[in-house]
Each structure stands twice: as C-alpha cells, then as structure tokens.
C-alpha cells in the first residue's frame, strides 16, 4: 500500500507492508494519493505536524533491513543527530563507534529509504558543507535544515 503526500519540499511517497513503513521517498512530480490505512494516515499526520513545527521526532514502525552497520545507522541517526543539529559524516562514524567509516556513513545516507524520518539531511560534509541530498537535491536539504533551525538564512 502507498500514499503520496504534498510537503513544502515536494511530493513524498510512503509505502507500507503489513504493519511497518517500508519506504519514504521524494517523488518529484507525483500526484497526491490519499492514505487509506491507519498506519499511512498516521505517517501523513506526523509529516503534517513536522512541517507545522509541532513535531520534532517521528514515531513510526520502520521495516529496516540491510547490513548490520546500515541498519544501526538508520536506527540510531535520529538520536545521534537530533532536530536542530547537524553532524559530519566523520562525526556520525565516530558516534557509531567506527571512526574512519565516514564513506560508509555517506553511502548509508545516500541509500536511506526513509527520508526525513531517518534524518540524513542533518548529515553534512566536513566543515558544515551541506553536500548532496537524495530527496530533491541540496536546495531541499537547505530548506529542511532552515525549517529545523540548524542553519540560518
């Protein structure tokens, strides 16, 4: 099952299998599809609250898979780099207990199947350079970080 919701950064597709969210992806040009299940309705509500600045953390069951390191990053990133903060790929690698694994962190961020909920937009290059963002590019990354108060202007 799926829905597509309108957000300030563009359409977001949310997919569900059984009782878990299996993907949250930026879908440029997609037309809205209303949520039909209780879980998809809850996910859409949480996104609405996030963009209305009344929610800072998401509470959704995510179907996380992949290597142990990849799964650990997806699970831990919201706690390691909370709303309003940023960290570099290297800093995240250190926080994960794997100094020197900044490239692996970058690869995980690029493959993140749960945009915004797993906040890969909060992870930057060294020195605070924003870098790429798989959900609509650097402009969307900048908008999300401004929205969260992590960067100015």
TrEMBL record:
It holds the Pfam family DNA_binding_1. It is an enzyme of class 2 (transferase). InterPro entries: MethylDNA_cys_MeTrfase_DNA-bd, MethylDNA_cys_MeTrfase_DNAb, MethylG_MeTrfase_N, MGMT_N_sf, WH-like_DNA-bd_sf. One of its GO terms (molecular function) is methylated-DNA-[protein]-cysteine S-methyltransferase activity. Its EC number is 2.1.1.63. PANTHER family: METHYLATED-DNA--PROTEIN-CYSTEINE METHYLTRANSFERASE. This is Methylated-DNA--protein-cysteine methyltransferase.
């Amino acid at each position: 099952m799926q829905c597509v919701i309108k957000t300030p950064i563009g359409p977001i597709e949310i997919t569900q299998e059984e009782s878990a969210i299996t993907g949250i992806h930026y879908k440029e040009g997609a037309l809205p599809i209303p949520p039909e299940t209780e879980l998809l309705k809850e996910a859409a509500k949480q996104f609405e609250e996030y963009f209305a600045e009344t929610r800072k953390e998401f509470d959704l069951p995510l179907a996380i898979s992949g290597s142990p390191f990849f799964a650990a990053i997806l699970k831990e990133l919201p706690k390691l780099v909370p709303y309003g903060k940023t960290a570099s790929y290297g800093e995240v690698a250190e926080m994960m207990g794997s100094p020197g694994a900044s490239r692996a962190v970058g690869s995980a961020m690029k493959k993140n199947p749960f945009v915004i909920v797993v906040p890969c937009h909060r992870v930057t290059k060294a020195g605070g350079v924003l870098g790429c963002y798989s959900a609509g590019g650097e402009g969307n990354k900048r908008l999300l970080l401004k929205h969260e108060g992590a960067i100015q202007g």
